[in-house]
TrEMBL record:
Entry's localization field: Cell membrane; Cytoplasm
Gene from which this protein is expressed: ftsY
Name recorded for this polypeptide: Signal recognition particle receptor FtsY
Membrane topology: Peripheral membrane protein
InterPro entries per record: AAA+_ATPase, P-loop_NTPase, Signal_recog_particl_SRP54_hlx, SR_rcpt_FtsY, SRP/SRP_N, SRP54_GTPase_dom, SRP54_N_sf
Length: 399
């Protein structure tokens, strides 16, 4: 065997040996790999779902929707409750007029009886006069109205019920006096330095008249007129009063300034007006404690509240809340409050439950100040500006 053939055989054998070694290594490597995943795990996820990341990263299983990202320590605040939309003053007046006209009150019955008679004699006039007095019209206004009616019906020869009603309306309207200024002083101003000064309305009255509720309802009236309002809870003797005000304020987005229980009412009132000045509020409504008019010390304290407020801003309006059902007792209260805080207007509440509309005339005569607001119900918007003509028309609507 020659040398070339020998080299060829050796080379072929070497190649075979190397190939066998390589094949063995490849086979061993293939056996070391994990088995291939099933075909379904290799499919792409559907649109709108998340991928299937590992659980070690806190990720979800395939086929679920990804939650929104949030910071670990973030507190998610609930959405604020929607604010109430107070009823417009115009629609309040219309609705309250209908409600007043629907009351079976003594004044309406007396007027109806007068016009229903075929012949008006002395007994009729006496009966009518008694009815007016019992409807809280008062002795003076009653005598004045009866004399005016008797004279006009006789002189003008009025026999037709329709004509008699017109005369009656004119005379009753004259007693209610539509010429009195019933507007509320709720326009802000500026001081000598040009700084903002809110209008301040002080609300006073005895316990049980609905004073705090009236403050809350009045806030709604002003918000409906696009006023920026702030409430001052100066009734610090009754914690529930401040809580009640905060409830009213939260419904229409009105802030409330309150102090600790038993705190100095004058201090709380001062802080409220100062906050209204700094926040450039249009109106600050200050609720005061329901003081008994027989308590001289408490009445003096009410005078102090007014004096302290006026260190910051003038008190443009002092509203006395009276319960229309109290009659003569309400007039006694009114006189004492007028002496202490110079009352500028009356709020008559519970007029729907009283049916004694004559109190409107009498209280105006006694105090020389107008009825500016009336309440006819327990609804949140059952408070409206008093309108003399609408009041008289409502009383006569059944006649």
């Amino acid at each position: 065997m020659n040398a070339d053939l020998l080299y060829l055989i050796v080379g072929v054998v070497a190649l075979l040996v190397v190939g066998a070694v390589v094949a063995t290594v490849v086979v061993r490597r293939r056996r070391a790999l994990p088995p291939a995943p099933p075909a379904e795990e290799l499919e792409r996820p559907a649109v709108g779902t998340a991928t299937a990341p590992s659980k070690e990263r806190g990720e979800r299983a395939p086929g679920t929707t990804a939650p929104p990202e949030t910071l670990p320590d973030t507190q998610v605040e609930p959405a604020p409750a929607p604010l109430d939309v107070p009823e417009a003053p115009e629609s309040r007046l219309t609705r309250l007029r209908r409600r007043l006209a629907g009351q079976d009150n003594a004044l309406s019955r007396g007027l109806l009886a007068l016009l229903a008679r075929d012949r008006i004699d002395e007994d009729t006039w006496e009966e009518f006069e008694d009815t007016l007095i019992t409807s809280d019209l008062g002795v003076g206004p009653t005598t004045e109205l009866v004399e005016a009616l008797r004279t006009r019906l006789k002189v003008e020869g009025v026999a037709d019920p329709g004509a008699a009603r017109r005369v009656l309306r004119e005379e009753l309207l004259r007693l209610v006096d539509p010429t009195m200024d019933r507007s509320l002083a709720t326009e802000p101003g500026t001081d000598a330095n040009g700084a903002h000064v809110p209008a301040v309305v002080l609300v006073v009255g005895v316990n049980g008249t609905g004073k705090t509720t009236t403050v809350g309802k009045l806030a709604r009236v002003l918000v409906a007129e696009d006023k920026d309002v702030l409430l001052g809870a100066a009734d610090t003797f009754r914690a529930a009063a401040a809580d009640q005000l905060e409830t009213w304020g939260s419904r229409v987005g009105v802030p409330v300034v309150r102090g600790a229980e038993q705190a100095d009412p004058a201090s709380v009132a001062f802080d409220a007006v100062r906050a209204g000045q700094q926040g450039e509020a249009d109106v600050v409504l200050v609720d005061t404690a329901g003081r008994l008019h027989s308590k001289t010390g408490l009445m003096d304290e009410l005078g102090k509240v007014k004096r302290v407020i006026e260190r910051t801003a003038p008190v443009g309006e002092v509203l006395l809340v009276l319960d229309a059902t109290t009659g003569q007792n309400g007039l006694t209260q009114a006189r004492i409050f007028r002496e202490v805080v110079d009352v500028t207007g009356i709020v008559l509440t519970k007029l729907d439950g009283s049916a004694k509309g004559g109190i409107v005339v009498q209280v105006q005569r006694e105090l020389g100040v107008p009825v500016k607001l009336i309440g006819l119900g327990e609804g949140v918007d059952d408070l409206a500006p008093f309108d003399a003509e609408q009041f008289v028309d409502a009383v006569l609507s059944e006649a």
